[in-house]
Design a protein that fits this description.
Layout lengths: L1 E7 L5 E7 L13 E3 L1 H39 L4 H8 L10
């Protein structure tokens, strides 16, 4: 027999605990946690994953913008575009197909 309990922590995070065995009993949850259903647990995980994905996309865009700014600054200082591209990792749109 096995049991899994799902719960939400006061900080909004979700967790699960499982036990298995012939004499298994439902595992206790922390005193300050609230028990939730498996569906609520899965929905919360999906929301957390979506938020992480959005954050990853924001960080990637900020990195791309920083690379472009660095590239533009190096070119403005007189560095050849190819060298600025190598140093920054930025590929201008008109060179992306090269």
């Amino acid at each position: 027999m096995s049991y899994t309990v799902y719960y939400r922590q006061p900080d909004g995070s979700v967790s699960s605990r499982s036990v298995a065995g012939a004499h298994a009993e439902p595992p206790p949850i922390p005193e300050d946690a609230t028990e939730i259903t498996a569906d609520e647990y899965q929905a919360a995980l999906e929301q957390i994953r979506a938020a992480h994905s959005e954050q990853d996309q924001r960080v990637a865009e900020q990195d791309r913008q920083r690379q472009e700014q660095d590239y533009q600054a190096l070119v403005a200082l007189g560095l050849p575009a190819e060298t600025a591209q190598r140093l920054t990792g930025y590929v201008p749109d008109d060179r992306a197909d090269d």
